[in-house]
Automatic annotation (TrEMBL):
The keyword Cytoplasm applies. It comes from Dyella thiooxydans. One of its GO terms (molecular function) is double-stranded DNA binding. One of its GO terms (biological process) is DNA recombination. This is Recombination-associated protein RdgC.
Length: 305
């Protein structure tokens, strides 16, 4: 259950107190199956276990894990257009007339109504957790749209959840460029093997993407001398995790290294105990990273109104 990406939001201590209602309110917003004429549904599903009896939250210390589930009908546009063309051609051949735009629209709507109940359904799951002690909402996605959708689900369930995007006091792009150009990384942080460099002042938007690359190489230095800045940077934190940090402060490609995985072990007696151990380890490691991101970039926690 280790998260692979981290999109982050912050909330105040007063908001944290309101999160004690999560167990109660999520039950009213459980994921339900798509109806015959629905394209999609969203709701909460158990983070651990399955079935109606499974809890919709899983808490360890001050962190509460929740999962937004989704069902989406798969009805490709190409399928609809092919069927529409077949019907239009049949009308032309049998009735000897052209089908106008208004009639094509009506036929297409009829096709949707006919095909939708028979469409395949794709299930999705998006994990997140709230750290009530430190005021973080952590969502396992690199997509801003998916993160906002998950946040909206929590807001709908609670009635209000004023979590806000990060507002760094230090410019991430400038700071990461300095790290790479001058080797001034904070203690405990080391360069990885991936970087995306862009020329922010270029009309052509010149981009250099390097993977499995020595970031101290002359090639990288030449890009920096030519005015490119860091938009994504591969990093290793305390030899315990590797990731790619974006100028939007989204953590991508998060990977826990062997030293962390060895600490978890494999002696758990059941799935619940394993989930507890994994989630506790996950949140502890991420808590350490977020504390450093807060320090390096200046990420203040919102104050109570």
């Amino acid at each position: 259950m280790f998260f692979r990406n981290l999109t982050l939001f912050r909330f105040s201590p007063a908001v944290a107190d309101d999160l004690n209602r999560l167990d109660e309110v999520l039950a009213e917003h459980r994921l339900r199956p798509c109806g015959p004429m629905e394209m999609s549904t969203r709701g909460f599903v158990p983070p651990v276990g399955r079935g109606e009896e499974a809890a919709l939250t899983h808490a360890v210390n001050a962190c509460t894990w929740l999962t937004v589930g989704g069902e989406d009908k798969l009805l490709p546009a190409a399928v609809i257009n092919d069927e529409l063309q077949r019907k239009v051609q049949k009308i032309a051949e049998e009735e000897g007339r052209k089908v106008g735009g208004r009639e094509r629209k009506r036929i297409k709507e009829d096709l949707l109504n006919e095909l939708l109940p028979r469409a395949f359904v794709r299930n999705s799951r998006l994990s997140a957790y709230v750290d009530k002690k430190h005021g973080w909402l952590v969502i396992d996605t690199a997509s801003r749209k998916s993160a906002e959708n998950a946040l909206s689900q929590v807001r709908e369930a609670l009635g209000s959840f004023p979590a806000v995007p990060l507002a760094p006091e230090e410019g991430p792009r400038v700071l990461m460029t300095d790290w790479l150009a001058n080797g001034t990384l904070p203690a405990g942080l080391a360069l990885g093997d991936e970087v995306e460099l862009r020329d922010p002042g270029s009309a052509t938007g010149a981009i250099a993407k390097c993977r499995r690359q020595d970031l101290d190489s002359e090639e990288i230095k030449e890009h920096l001398r030519n005015g490119k800045q860091v938009f994504q940077l591969g990093l290793v934190f305390d030899d315990r995790m590797s990731f790619v940090l974006g100028e939007d402060l989204v953590v991508r490609k998060l990977k826990f290294l062997d030293v962390v995985l060895d600490e978890m072990g494999d002696s758990h007696q059941d799935a619940a105990a394993e989930a507890d151990a994994s989630f506790a380890l996950l949140t502890l490691e991420i808590e350490r990273l977020l504390a450093k991101l807060e320090e390096w970039f200046g990420l203040p926690r919102p104050a109570d109104a």
